[in-house]
Every structure is written in C-alpha cells, then in structure tokens.
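step: validate -> pass
step: tokenize input -> pass
step: predict -> running
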Amino acid sequence: MPATRDTRKTPRRGLAAVAALPLLIGALASCGYGSQAEKTADADARPAAADGGQKLSASEVRIGYFPNLTHATALVGLQEGLIEKELNGTKVKPQSFNAGPSEIEALNGGSLDIGFIGPSPSINGYVKSKGSNLRIISGSASGGVKLVVNPDKIKTLDDLKGKKIATPQKGNTQDVAFLNWISEKGWSVDPESGKGDVSVVRTDNKVTPDAFKQGSIDGAWVPEPTASKLVSDGGSVLLDEGSLWPGNKFVITNVIVSQKFLKEHPDVVEAVLRGTVKTNEWIHSNQDKAKASANARLLAETGKGLDPKVIDPAWPSISVTDDPLAATLKKQSEWAVKAKLLESPDLAGIYDLTLLNKVLKAAGKPPVSDAGLGAK
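step: predict -> pass
step: emit ->
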C-alpha cells in the first residue's frame, strides 16, 4: 500500500524503530496498577518460559476483532504471529465479531480481554457501564470511510437530497458522521427513523452491496472494504470522509481492554501493545506483504478473501496508527449528542495510554495524547 495524501506521514514517523522494549516489563509498578513489591513477588513466582525468558502473568489473552480491513493491525498481527511473539508463551485466543455491540458485550461479560473496535461502540460501552468496564489503550487505524453513490442518480453532493443512502447501523461511527454531515448541509433527518431530506437506511455491510446492485439504495457511507465493493459494482466515490478532518486523520479503530484484565495483567497488556506497535511498523514497511497477509486472515475467518479489484483500492485509504487520535473521538461523541443518539457523556477516564506511551518512549518517540480524557 503506497503512502497516499498526508495520512501516513505522522504515523510513519511515530512507528519507526520500535526496539529495546523488554526492559519495560520490569518497570510495571510505575503504571499505577500495584506496588513494586507485589509486582516483584508475582514475577518471581512465575516459571520461566520455554525460551528461557520469564512467563507473563496470564496463560492466555482473548483478543477480539472484526474481519474488516479497518482492523488490519489485528488481522496482520495475528496472521504473522507478531503479537503472540511478544507474549513469551502466553497464548492468544482470537475471537472474531461482526458488530461492535457483541464485542462490547463479550468484554463486559468477561469472555474477552482485549478488543479492536470503532469509536462509537467504545463510547457506548464506556457510558453504559458508567466508566467501569473498559479503557481505550491505543489507536489502531485511521480513515477508510467513503461515500459511494450510483453515478447515474447522484453526480454532486447536493444530489443526495431525496435519495436513499445506507449506513451500517443506527448510531454507529459512520451513521453518526453521515448524520452530522447532513446537518451541516442544513438538511433535516430524524435520527431514529432515518427519514427526512435524505433517507438514511441502516443496512448491514454484508448486504449493502446487494442492496446497491438491486437499486434499493442509491449509495452508502461505509468503511472499507464495503466501499470498494460498491465501486467494483459500478459505484463512484463522491466523498472520502478523511477530507472532512484536519490532516485527513480520524479514528476508525481503537484498541480497548477490560479494566479488570488491565489491572490484573498489565504485563500482558503491555506485551500486546508491543506487538501492535511492531505490527503497525511492519505494515508500513511491507505494504504488499501486509495486504496479502490481511487477505489471508480474511480468507481463514470468512472462507473468502477479497478480490484484487476490491482490496487494491481499499488498502491505501486505511492508515494503521498507534495514536488513538483522541480529539477525533471526542468530536464524534459530540456529533452523536448533536444527533440526539447519545446523551451528553462523561468520557473522563475512557483512555489509559500509560502502557502505550511507555512503549513509545522506549522507542524514543513522543507520547500520544488522550485529549484530556485520560484515567486519573
């Protein structure tokens, strides 16, 4: 995936030369998750791993993700073993999900430890649990969302008025962004029914291409690879959502963790983050191999890989990044409140970037920001 626009420049600088990280494990007490004595005692009690290194505090870690290109860090990191390599004997138990609510339910229900997920489910999960069940601990991807339309019916953005445009789910990240865009055009849409100057049709990404081909929708505001599937079926990209954001950057995928797992196994969480950082660096340095790796994982997950005419244009529009782009999540929550899909949330504490910033600091890189929404 060659670099396009400016979306890759900042992440590329922030991901280089991730090395000399093993020393972090011995310094976990500074994370605020327990005393130095407790951590040392736990470490001394653990047996050595098969390679002679010290085993981590959990025998396995359950990691959730979607079979989507916007979850490229998870797809490639698991496919190439780059995440598990950092775990020194702790086994990865991968779990694939098709929607944010089910992943949040698994995390809140204790059957998932760490997950890759979009900003809206992250916000909803945090708010519903009153801040008690999850933390965002890293970014994962930016971009990869497009408005694709039937070019015979829609030639300009103004032509959307009176048309049927799909989003993946009521209140999901793309739905909120589209409703906000409609509002800024001065048009009106009821957020619950989707009816108004534009008909917002909530449609599962798996069936959106068929709905588009059948003409029951005129376009869709969707993430990759659905957007490129629509293009392969004759659609035209009318708008890339990245163009609406400063620097073309906005969070599309976060890494979240169960607060219980973070508190009990910070060494495992840190190891996973080392793996995700190294995975993102590997993706940036090995674009063709990474694209093939992600497609191989999709084939294993769904029984069908993506056609080159879909994955080739989709891949360059997604930028993997360790930065959670917290200010953009904050903005997305404001849009959801504006659309009356969310009551004004208290997001203080939704981020805990302590371990990520330790990993980045060890690599000689500046810390990433939580936009004032960090755990105290």
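step: describe -> The first strand starts at residue 60 and ends at 65.
step: cleanup -> pass
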